[in-house]
## 1
Amino acid sequence: MLQIIIQGLLLSGLYALIAMGFMLIFSIGRTLNLAYGAYIMVGGYIYFWLSQQLGLPKLIGFAGAVAVGAIMGLLKHRLIVKPLKGDAVAVEISTLILAVIMQSAVVLVFGDASKILLPIIPGVVTISGAQVTYNILAATLMSWIIILALYAFIRGTHTGRAMQAVSMDQKGAAISGVDPDRINMITWAISGGLGAAGGVFFASYTQLSPNMWVAPVIISVAIVIVGGIGSIIGTLIVAHIIGFLEIIIVAVWAPELRGVFTMLLIIGVLIVRPQGLFGREEH
Amino acid sequence: MNLRPHHFILWALFIAGMLLMPELVGRGTLRTMIFACYLAIFAISWDILSGRTGYISFGHPFLVGIGAYTTAILTRRYGFPVEASIPIAVLVTMFGGLIVLLPALRIKGSYFALVTLAVMELMYQLVPVIRPDLTGGTRGISRLPALTRGAENGYYLAVSLMLAVALFAWLLMRTRLGTALWAIGQNEESVRGSGLSTTRLKSFAFLVSAAVAGLGGAFYAHYLGTITPRAFFDINVLFQIIVAVLIGGAGTILGPIIGAFFMVFLLEWLRPFLPGQERFFVYGAIALLIYMYQPKGIMAIIDSGVARLRGAKT
């Protein structure tokens, strides 16, 4: 029982972090960024390359992954999303193509076989009978620190409030002196960095493989849609619902059914209540 | 599209060329063409729904997969003859699509795409778990009865099926229904405003699309002889179908066919240089460039090229 609670909390924190970056883009542009998973994958692989293949300090590996993720986010906004001028269908399709390109780029550079990431912090701690690796504990703590920092940034700073304004009403924000283009670029960069950071932790939780991006994208989508677009609290709550559901199903039922309930949840909620459980009405 | 005599001549030449192909090329190329024909069928199926109405389906591999699995289970597990199992597979696909995806047609845009994507992923995870005695689990079902023997016969079968589907889609789109579907893609509100039931139109497009996907999937399964969850309910399959339509040209009949052949042959030519999945890197880059530069695809590029040539002559 305790094992389930601890593992559920750890996995949920990780999911919340991954979903957060996706949520930023989805709430601002209403664009379904299917290539979000590419940040996660690239983040994991860059960290692997810098810290494990080149043997650089782990912190540099992590910073490098986040930087590459942020640059990818910027490039994607400049080269794909902006030229398509908010055509949602075109963005969906081109990001799907981009995701497959990134997947094959990873195969090209790192090969087809999956790779094991060394733990970021080695060691195991036993919390009242439940075995928890320091690695996952650290990942969850870092996830929470990043999430809280993001929350503070969005609520507390001028730029963060401008992001909220753009997400609610692009034209209105522009009239009141916000440059939506600049805000969009910042958001895409942050989203890319968040995805890459999440990717490092996610890869150390599972492993690195060229198709590791599919599951996190679908989980992020599920969390954000069910949680309600633009709602950070909703995202956190639903990340925990999904994280715990998966742990419980794996523990008491069958590991193969792990993702099934995530899919059923997303299908059910989308059909019954497309604005999500905690979301505001769309017009 | 106004029909002129030269259109008929071009189509006749195209069909004759396709039928003569086994005389001109080797076995290996023939197999590549068979695959292209099936991909073209799936692409036409996707285009009937998504290319016309703008409701992007990310779940088409799901429909293809139901068709393939139904006929595989019926023939291998229950000993049905192929002639009976394929029509049943088509019906099951229509029914399966109906109960799972029809509620999704109420929701718009990205959300429809999401639901269909989730349905595909759900199938990928469920098929190996539920009744592995029927579905064969992750290893799938092998030794399916073949419809014909030899590459040549397989090719004729695939080409005739593709041409039949193309002809059917073309006839369908020439009716007022086709116009209405296209109009939904342009502006759904005004179609509803003109007194038509968009729900009924979309459902119909969806059913036709599912029937074609199921038919293609069933024939494809018997051609392959084996099916696995990975070969059907996978994002790469989805990628190939969508890219074939987009590269060729959405909303046309010839577009998905051109796109499918372009895609399959490009991948085949890349094989000596990039043997594995890396091929999709070059392929995807080309697809993305074409899509960003000309969203209407190769058809539009050819059209504007022809127009430019004509303009130069006069």
Note: Residues 65 and 244 of chain B are 18 Å apart (CA to CA).
## 2
Amino acid sequence: MPMKKVMKGNEAAAWAAKLAKPKVIAAFPITPSTLVPEKISEFVANGELDAEFIKVESEHSAISACVGASAAGVRTFTATASQGLALMHEILFIAAGMRLPIVMAIGNRALSAPINIWNDWQDTISERDTGWIQFYAENNQEALDLILIAFKVAEDERVLLPAMTGFDAFILTHTVEPVEIPDQELVDEFLGEYKPKHAYLDPKRPITQGTLGFPAHYMEARYKVWEAMENAREVIKEAFEEFEKKFGRKYQMVEEYKTDDAEIIMITMGSLAGTLKEFVDKKREEGVKIGAAKITVYRPFPIEEIRALAKKAKVLAILEKDVSFGSGGAVFADVARSLINEKEKPIILDFIIGLGGRDVTFEQLEEALGIAEKAIKEGVEEDVYWIGLRKEIL
Amino acid sequence: MAVRKPPITTREYWAPGHAACAGCGCAIIMRLATKAFSEAMEEKYGDPDAFAIAHATGCMEVVSAVFPYTAWKAPWIHVAFENAAAVASGVEAAWKKLGYKGKILAFGGDGGTADIGLQALSGMLERRHNVVYIMYDNEAYMNTGIQRSSSTPYGAWTTTSPPGKYSIGEDKPKKWVALIAAAHQIPYVATASIADPYDLYRKVKKAAKIDGPAFLQIHGPCVPGWRIPPEKTVEVAKLAIETGVWPLFEIENGDIRNIKFQRFPKDGKFKKPIEEYLKLQGRFKHLLKNPEAIQELKEQIKEMWRVLGKEVELP
């Protein structure tokens, strides 16, 4: 029987790792995800998880050790956030290029400067082009489930790419919620044993990994990463279906909420989706035709799902906790490019919101909604709207 | 009549066909070290193939693993420049869980070890991974075209330490990573040279048979980087030993009061002057016209020996 426990998001991530039975974990503590390696080291210390836990001296070495372990052919896990993820940046490309299905939990946190330990998505968004699959969790249950799903997808032979699951700093990492812990037997059935045919360092079958790719081969190797990420769309959907059958919880690339007759659909990711759904409920009671959509899988980007969503509404308003300086929000750019060749497309609005742990309030969402309503009548005034800025201290 | 076993195994893991320069000193290290490793594995585990190699970015990686070819007959992985020690840690952990009996060999050049990879090396040594780390020391960033590293000796020309009106060439003393490694109090630290292949072989073999981490700093001249003719590699390396420039020693468990020296003159007097070592190499050409700089180099070498616990005389 599945067991229900009240736990923090970090504990949920550690439980996911325990259930997935990785053979090697390498991690370095960083706020807000420190509890993940702490909890895992407890599991290992108590014999509840039979794994080598390498207490590395940096995040760069954490991911490097994971690459070594994964290349040697074992299931591998790590966790980090923010600056730690940024320190891994170089090796993230290599993990994907070497087709190593490492899974990583990220307590989504802002990047310096100024140093800030609170939530936004700048850390993972900045790694969107590394070739890692990206999931964003709305709550602690999703943090656990999406890490299990990440292993399933990453290790699929049609994919073989690393995957990261983000869950918002403090809002999820440090907040306790009831979380259902799936049965170990069912998880074992769901994930199976990891036996790679492409990555091993077996003296009886010596292979060379991490070669030099001349111009004659480099581009094709990168294309194979592209192809694997494209394959991941179908594999993720299959994994979601199988997960639902086994564990009863439904996941979608994009989860829609009250969108069917919506004029304005607000799109977001992570825990903000929870706030947004409540806001939609409130506005619906007031008779406003508004809906919400949550992007659960950001890489591969759910292009078809966004196109379907775009057919429903007059405005797609993107609420995102990240910024690409000199351009705008990264999610906005992905939504916009998904629709660029559509004959009819809605107005697409770009809202930067809640950076560095600033609370996203209903007042802020009202402000965004006001801009969206005005845009229907009067058009779009600005390329990028910053919501909730304290103008008096600028 | 019993056939005597050759002193160095005939097994090869670094295959002919690699693309290293003619006369490459580090290629000799690759070949000898893997042979020694194989023999150690045979003696320890009864399986000469029971090892895997993690390689830092650098000449030796570039010349041995150009897709779709490989010069390696052992399981081999390269990830990046600064993380060979961390990658080796991961491989070792995975092997433990897979139940493989064997040892991991990590290779890095002086740039990838003394400079950018020093932290990962320290972490690996401190955590006591069962890894032999070999730093092949050719005393500059040769893969990128001869830029100075912290292992470049005083006075040497490189493209980033050019001699000029206001410069004698490299102006800092050489960093001795072997001593930094010894400070971790790991089971075994040694220096070696391609000019003494039996000593090198013995040390790598010894390191490979120890349970726990070991570090070797091995001198291997670079033909283009040192501005030497390809046939002079071994001769130059030999002169480094004979003039006192390259010490051969072993430190066990970090006990620097009990350093074991090899080929050290009993009276502490080196017979050949440093100039003989310098004059064979284009990288020191400018130094021969600068007796003050040579004197400074001699002082630094004496100081290095003093740190090792030896008073030496250099002619």
Note: The beta strands of chain B are 51-55, 76-78, 103-109, 131-137, 163-164, 167-168, 188-193, 214-219, 248-252, 260-262.
## 3
Amino acid sequence: MQIYLPIAEVSVNVFLLFGLGGLVGVLSGMFGVGGGFLITPLLFFMGIPPAVAVATGANQIVASSISGVLAHFKRKTVDLRMGFVLLAGGLVGAALGVWIFNLLKGLGQVDLLVRLCYVVFLGIIGGLMFIESVNAIFKSRKGAVPKRRHHGWVHGLPFKMRFRTSGLYISAIPPVLVGLSVGVLAAIMGVGGGFIMVPAMIYLLGMPTKVVVGTSLFQIIFVSAFTTLLHATTNYTVDIMLALVLILGGVIGAQIGTAFGTRLKAEQLRIALASLVLLVCGKLALDLFITPSELYELVAP
Amino acid sequence: MRLLAALLLLLAALPARAEEVVLGLSRDSVSITTDFDGSDILIFGAVKRETAIQAVPPLQVIVTVEGPLEPVTVWRKARRLGIWVNAEAVEIDSAPSFYAVATSAPWKESISAVEDLRHGVSIPRAIRSVGAPMDIMDSEAFTEALIRVREEQGLYRVEEESVELRDSTLFDTSITMPANISEGRYLTRVFLTRGGKVVSAHESEIQVGKVGLERWLFTLSRQMPLAYGLLSLAIAALAGWGASALFRAIRSG
């Protein structure tokens, strides 16, 4: 059954879209990521214009993050104070990101920018995560106690704040910067940024793993909502129909994913996520390097 | 002298008047609804004439359907630092968003190059270009690429010998519009030709537009983008909350 998308102005198979939403939902339930880094490139492959894919992806993330964060609120694994500090940076970053996005759209380079961002960030994050989880598995086999590293340069900065839920007393500058950079990426890549923020929160801010996912989801809701609004008012590229089908698939998938996730070990989960990230990165990188079959591209001004 | 010339011209034009198109369309509007998956339009008609059918040269029919004209930028990729990037652009002033040509005979027998140029019948003639920057020498390659890409998307199509012509009088053809067509007024033209010369032409219009929910959402997104954005967020929030509440209920009940 085909469905006509009023903003994207293309007709796509509704079951394929629903399945895509569902698949991403499963992953977000399992790993606590929004799944935008998968949805946006997959929408490209389905023939949805990149600008619509990015903007609608942001809208879909709002729904999946809300669905995910509610469970974390119940378990009290959301550091609200940290969430608001991250958010302050995130909103500024999102505005900056949409500005950059529109600037490059005018230059005809937005597609390249989005793809390059994906390759670079998925490559770095996926690689680091993969190495780290492999190490963690070896260490746990040897029976060594994982050591928490502390007191780096991060702890010498001013504006210290106490984050009770995370049990941290650190400067507000690193979280604001983390939020800011994730906000920029959210706007450009149509992602929530969880796959960047989660490692950043663990390794850069030293937050305990159990509050990381909930806090990340909490701030992603607002950053993606803000991004959605900016895209809707400056580019008119948010497609409600597309978002709705993806959301319906996504929220169902997320519940299935959450059930799966609790049965797997943290290291196994991380290694699986890392492999997935690297796979998507590899596919996108290949597309950049291989001579395209069609050298020309049409862009409506 | 001038009067004589005018008279001669009128006489020369007379045979052209002898055959005229009477056109029918299976419909004069196409509605883009939620389940829109393209559309076929049947174009049929007859040749009205007062004289006996002239056998040589044979009568041919050409049907064109042209979507709204829009400007478009054609980018060409080039390898820079190992990766493929958009390097050069040519702006095409106006190209039809959709263009279909159907003929009753092979193209060469249907219309001469001069008549094609005069009436803008073939796809290259329907595209108006080219403000190519000075440094681009091969601007035709960009126009060719535009045609190639749109042909692959099913937006430009040339269907030779797809017009059925019976007894040089009745004709019909079917034009397929893909799901990714844009809105607007579609111009339908029918040309009668003999020996490559146009003897009669007729124009008509088909209205293509979104209706119902599609129309409402599109209009809202353009005219009240903030309200549209808030609506999309409200739907997302409701779906996210609703789903988790629903599944909690299922699990506990």
Note: Chain B has a mean pLDDT of 85.
## 4
Amino acid sequence: MIEASAKTKIDEQTDRKRTHEVVELTPLDKGLINLLQHGLPVCERPFEVIANELNSTEEEVITHLNQLLESKVLSRFGPMFDAACLGGAFTLAALAVPDERFEAVTAQVNSFEQIAHNYRRTHQYNMWFVIATESQQEIYQVIEEIENMTGLEVLNAPKLEEFYVGLYLPV
Amino acid sequence: MSVSTSQSNALTPIEREYVLLTQNGLPIVARPYHWIAEQLKISVEQVYELTEKFLENGIVRRIAAVPNHYKLGYTYNGMTVWDIADEHATTFGDAVGKLPFVSHCYLRPRKLPSWNFNLFAMVHGKSPDEIEQQRSQIKKLLTDVLVERFHDDEQKTLFKPYDMLTSTQILKKTGLRLKRNSTEKA
């Protein structure tokens, strides 16, 4: 099954200024970021293919990519799995949380290990989170438990149809 | 894709090993697929075959670089939400999803009376102005299919046919991972 493990980054990116360190990129870095967001070819020497497209060398491409990962300009490199295809159930859910209770409800909601992402947003529904579980049944259980715990009604918005998933951020 | 769940036992044991090995990323080396083959103790031909199969059936969307939005200056995002006529949802959802600045586009159920929006499209930009422009571009595309809906007969107040929810704080962010110790299903 899928688990929402790893580190919880509460408030890590709250302060935009702190994380807003836009880095200096070389033309090769930019080319790599733009090209590799679309995907790596499946062949023996894929970085050589990429290097040829960018008038560079395989060695230089590998060095630069490793540097981009190290400096966290790239958060990841590798296969992007469709989590839903790997088993488990997902939904996007929201709560309309009174401002004075926001912090307390955040702690309550985040205490569920099945909560993968949680964002504060500008709307009456001001808390939006992804529930990732092993089964559809468990989704309903988590929703019910959140409702009992917080006394707030959960807006459950599972995806009915997916049109596109893929972020391209040109640099 | 029309369902939000599928079964993990669709993966064969070797496919499962492939996922476990690579879900944290691939090493950036000259022959990455050979690396997978060595780790899984299978032939590189088998790795190509598995990879192509994953790409075809959508288990793997791409083998790609994922940039850190913030480091590239993309510090603003907006979850744009739209109330569009159900009979046009698929056609127009596709069209919105094809816009270059839209990263995710989904159809979701309405929950009246508190939530009338059924189309969600996530946009990303380097300034509030930029995501505002992206929102208006989507609006232009959807103008003819936006629904005019009243709260109820007595109030005669209109629902907004669209909105944009911007994130102001990350409250939790974890990676989704396949568990290594989960029991195999035949």
Note: The two ends of chain B are 25 Å apart (CA to CA).
